[in-house]
From TrEMBL:
InterPro entries: AAA+_ATPase, ABC_SmlMolc_Importer, ABC_transporter-like_ATP-bd, ABC_transporter-like_CS, Mo/tungstate-bd_C_term_dom, P-loop_NTPase, Transp-assoc_OB_typ2. SUPFAM superfamilies: MOP-like, P-loop containing nucleoside triphosphate hydrolases. GO terms for molecular function: ATP binding. This is Polyamine ABC transporter ATP-binding protein. Gene3D superfamilies: 2.40.50.100, P-loop containing nucleotide triphosphate hydrolases. Residues 6-236 form the ABC transporter domain. Keywords: ATP-binding, Cell inner membrane, Cell membrane, Membrane, Nucleotide-binding, Translocase, Transport. Pfam families: ABC_tran, TOBE_2. It comes from the Bacteria. PROSITE patterns: ABC_TRANSPORTER_1, ABC_TRANSPORTER_2. The keyword Nucleus does not apply.
C-alpha cells in the first residue's frame, strides 16, 4: 500500500461503561475500496460515524490526507456519507434531492447545475431528474442516494450498508456498479456491511470486526485463504476445523498431529500465527476430494444436499466429528448416504488457526 490516506489511530468509543469500539487502528490507502465487515453490534457503524465526524471518539485520532481531523465537524472533513435510499426527501424531485446539500452550502447556481449534470450523467439519472423518489425503482433510488453523496465531491465516500434495502439480484448488480464507479472516480470508498459475500466481491481489503475490535485486515483472498483465527475462518464461509494435538515447524510448513488421527498432516502457517500457542487446522469444504479408496480420512456419507450448482456432503468420521465437503455439480462419481468414502486434500489446502 502507498502512503496511507486515512489513518485511524487507537480509536475508541464508549457509551457509559459499554465499549462499542475498542482501540482500533487502521491505515487505508488512496483509491481503496475498503470494507468494515462484522456481525450486528460489532461497532462498524460507530467506527464509520467517527471517521465521518458524526460521533466524537472517546479516545484516539483520525488523520485524513496528513491532517488531524478528529475535532472537525462532518462538513469540514473531506468525507461524505451515503445514506440509505429511504432517507431521500419524498416531496422533492430527484434533481432537488441531489443538490440539496449544495443549495444549503449556498454554492453559486451555475456551479450547482454543472455539478448536477455531471453526476446525473455518471449515474445515468439524466432522464429521471424531474421524478419524485416514489416514482423510481429501488435501484434507481439507490443511485440517487449515491449521487447526493458524490455531488459534494468528497475525497472519501463512506457507505453504511448501502445495499441493505435491495433484493438479491439487484444487490449484486449494484455491487458491480459501485465497483465500476469507484474505479472510474478514483475515490476512496469505505463500506460497512455484515454480508461476507458482498465484502469479498467489492473490496480491495476487508477489516473483519468482532466486539469493537478488528481481528484481521487483508485482501479478500488473504482473509479467506489464510484466516488467522477460528472466528474469521467461520465468519468468511465454511471451514472444517480440527483440534491440533501437536505441531512443529518444518521449512515454513507445520507438521501437525490432529487429535484422534494417527497419520500426520502438513499445513501452512499464515502470517501472524505463532506455532507455540493453541492451534487448530482448517480446510475449506471445496478443497476436499472424495474417493472410494486410497489414502485419506475415512468416513461415511451421512447427508447429501443438492443445491443446483453444487452437491454438499456431510461425512461422519471415526472420531465422531463431521466433515463437510462441497463439490461442483456435474461429472465424477456421485456419492450417496451410507457410502464409505475417503476424503483427502492437498497440503496447501490446510492451514493453522489460532484461537
Ligand atoms: N448512542 C448509543 N448509545 C448506547 N449504545 C450505543 C449507541 N450507539 C451504538 N451503541 C451500541 O454500540 C454497539 C455497536 O453499535 P454499531 O451500530 O456500531 O454496530 P454495527 O456493527 O454497525 O451493527 P449493525 O450492523 O446492527 O448496525 C451496539 O451494541 C450498539 O447497541
Amino acid at each position: 500500500m502507498q502512503k496511507p490516506f486515512l489513518t485511524v489511530d487507537g480509536l475508541s468509543k464508549t457509551y457509559g461503561n459499554f465499549i462499542a469500539v475498542s482501540g482500533i487502528s487502521l491505515e487505508i490507502g488512496r483509491g481503496e475500496f475498503f470494507s468494515l465487515l462484522g456481525p450486528s453490534g460489532c461497532g462498524k457503524s460507530t467506527l464509520l460515524r467517527m471517521i465521518a465526524g458524526f460521533e466524537n471518539p472517546t479516545s484516539g485520532n483520525v488523520f485524513l490526507d496528513g491532517a488531524n481531523v478528529t475535532k472537525l465537524p462532518p462538513e469540514r472533513r473531506p468525507t461524505n456519507m451515503m445514506f440509505q435510499s429511504y432517507a431521500l426527501f419524498p416531496h422533492l424531485s430527484v434533481a432537488k434531492n441531489i443538490v440539496f446539500g449544495l443549495v444549503q452550502e449556498r454554492l453559486p447556481k451555475n456551479e450547482i447545475s454543472a455539478r448536477l449534470s455531471e453526476v446525473a450523467k455518471k449515474l445515468q439519472l439524466e432522464a429521471l431528474l424531474e421524478r419524485k423518489p416514489s416514482q423510481l425503482s429501488g435501484g434507481q433510488r439507490q443511485r440517487v442516494a449515491l449521487a447526493r453523496a458524490l455531488v459534494k465531491r468528497p475525497k472519501v465516500l463512506l457507505l453504511d450498508e448501502p445495499l441493505g434495502a435491495l433484493d438479491k439480484n439487484l444487490r449484486s448488480e449494484t455491487q458491480d456498479e459501485l465497483v465500476r464507479l469507484q474505479k472510474e472516480l478514483g475515490l476512496t470508498f469505505i463500506i460497512v456491511t455484515h454480508d461476507q459475500h458482498e465484502a469479498m466481491t467489492v473490496s480491495s481489503r476487508i477489516a473483519i470486526m468482532q466486539s469493537g475490535r478488528v481481528l484481521q485486515v487483508g485482501a479478500p483472498e488473504t482473509v479467506y485463504e489464510a484466516p488467522i483465527s477460528r472466528y474469521v475462518a467461520k465468519f468468511l464461509g465454511e471451514a472444517n476445523i480440527f483440534d491440533v494435538a501437536s505441531a512443529s515447524q518444518d521449512h515454513g510448513w507445520a507438521n501437525v498431529r490432529l487429535s484422534g488421527f494417527d497419520t500426520p498432516f502438513r499445513a501452512r502457517i499464515p502470517a501472524g500465527i505463532s506455532i507455540d500457542g493453541s492451534l487448530w487446522l482448517s480446510v475449506r469444504p471445496e478443497r476436499i476430494e472424495l474417493g472410494r479408496d486410497g489414502a485419506g480420512i475415512r468416513g461415511v456419507v451421512e447427508e447429501v444436499t443438492y443445491t443446483g450448482a453444487q452437491r454438499r456432503y456431510r461425512l461422519r468420521l471415526p472420531t465422531n466429528a463431521t466433515l463437510d465437503v462441497v463439490k461442483v455439480n456435474g461429472g465424477g462419481d456421485d456419492f450417496h448416504v451410507g457410502d464409505a468414502v475417503v476424503a483427502r486434500w492437498a497440503d496447501e489446502a490446510a492451514h493453522l488457526l489460532a484461537e
